[in-house]
Amino acid sequence: MTNRYIFLYASAMVVIVALVLSGAATLLRPMQERNMRMEKMQNILAAIDIPASRDEAEALFNQYITVTKIVDHQGEELEGDAFEVELQDENRKPVEERQLPVFIADVDGETFYVVPVRGNGLWGPIWGYVGLESDVKTIAGANFDHSSETPGLGAEISGESFEEQFKGKKIFDEDGDFRPVRVVKGGAPDDDPHAVDGISGGTITSNGVTDMLRNGLEVYKSYFEKIKSS
Amino acid sequence: MSENDNNQKEVLFSPKNKKLLTNPLGKDNPINVQVLGICSVLAITVQLRTSIVMAISVVAVMGLANVIISLLRKTIPPRIRIIVQLTVIASLVILVDQVLKAFVYDVSRQLSVFVGLIITNCIIMGRLEAFALQNKPWPSFLDGIGNAAGYAWVLLAVGFFRELLGSGTLMGYNVIPGFMYEMGYEDNGFMILPPMALITVGIIIWVHRYKDRDLIDIS
């Protein structure tokens, strides 16, 4: 077999493989995107403590999430569909240009606000949703996820025991100043409403969550203050 | 394992072909005897459900990869055969991953990186190199399915015991009755950790050798 044959063989193989794989990806994309939408709805609902299975997600989302809107960093409303905003892209823009999605839920007459956050863990991006009670100060629930944190260590941020800790914590202190929740290595003091316990062996991921909450919630500060004063 | 191109009229399930299918389940088991593919056995057997999906994925990839390589075996330039094998396996694995993402999204999230790791599963490349390159498609197919099934049953056995003893569930359903817990029974959290997968595989190998004395190395 000549070099020419080998070269042609390899080239033909690459072309065929490329065609087959891109064909399959195009064909299956609608179904994959639907799954991702459902998961997003599930995560948003989880941040206000409404458990939803994949199949119920859409119905429950439509039932509870009554208003979705996009605001800017000064709390002014913008045009657009909040559900379609990708925080990954927004975070690359300067703060003034960012579109910030807000999901407002009505659960048995009580209002909740859910905002997305996104940051970096040890190995890759981490993200989540934070649900706030109607005082826009108290956390109603949090839901985190990650793409590639270490199982058993950093990956625990998406575990229930970690997420549960955020319930009832505050993101504004008594003077009304913005003070997000920190994840504290070695354990947070019991009476600190602005701190939760970190994960042993997952310090960098824990710090990532701290940064994610600070950066992610700070941009909403003006919007939250607007709600409070109205 | 020589080519038998002259023997055109071999029946589909001749004794020889049957052996290709059944040997890897016992005497030639890729995990118990050849000790290949251990990494994925440790990683994804915490629950029975992920084990089942992984097992099905490996059966699909291995059967297809063996057939494709066997069909191409006369055209593949020997100098780049490993690259060709890897390309075929990698493409099939990407296909499996895409299909899982479209139809069983939750499972695909749990398996996450491990689906990608099928590419490096040494059993698959081992069978391509040792068998499919020299044999016709049908025997290669049987060999692939047989070896994947040999891998699969060990995977399922380990997944079964780890989920049962580690979480008290099977396929996510509680199977240990409540009164057992009231009497002081506790799930063994250690079973969920990877070291216990290794020990479980060790016990399976032990039982396997006890049943099949031929496997015991007396040297």
What does it look like?
The complex is a heterodimer of chains A (230) and B (219). Chain A is of the alpha+beta class. Chain A has one domain. In chain A, helix 1 crosses helix 2. Chain A is globular. Chain A starts with a helix and ends with a helix. Chain B is an all-alpha fold and 219 residues long. Chain B has one domain. The two termini of chain B are 27 Å apart. The N terminus of chain B is likely disordered. The interface between A and B is medium-sized, with 21 and 21 residues.
> Strand fraction band of chain B?
under 5%
The coarse silhouette of chain A is: globular
C-alpha Rg of chain B, in Å? Answer: 19 Å
Structural class of chain B: mainly alpha
**N-C termini distance of chain B:** 27 Å
Helix and strand string of chain B, N-terminal first?
Answer: HHHHHHHHEEHH
Query: Helix tally of chain A?
Result: 6
Order of helices and strands of chain A: HHEEHEEEEHEEHH
Largest sheet of chain A: 6 strands, antiparallel
Q: For the CA atoms, what is the radius of gyration of chain A?
A: 21 Å
Domain module count of chain B: 1
Task: Work out the count of structural domains of chain A.
Answer: 1
Q: Choose one word for the global shape of chain B.
A: globular
In round numbers, the mean pLDDT of chain A is 89
Q: What's the count of strands of chain B? A: 2
Describe the structure concisely for a colleague:
The complex is a heterodimer of chains A (230) and B (219). Chain A has 230 residues and is an alpha+beta fold. Chain A has one domain.
Notable features of this structure?
heterodimer; A: 6-stranded antiparallel beta sheet; two-stranded parallel sheet; globular; B: 219 residues; mainly alpha; two-stranded antiparallel sheet; 2 strands; 2% strand; disordered N terminus
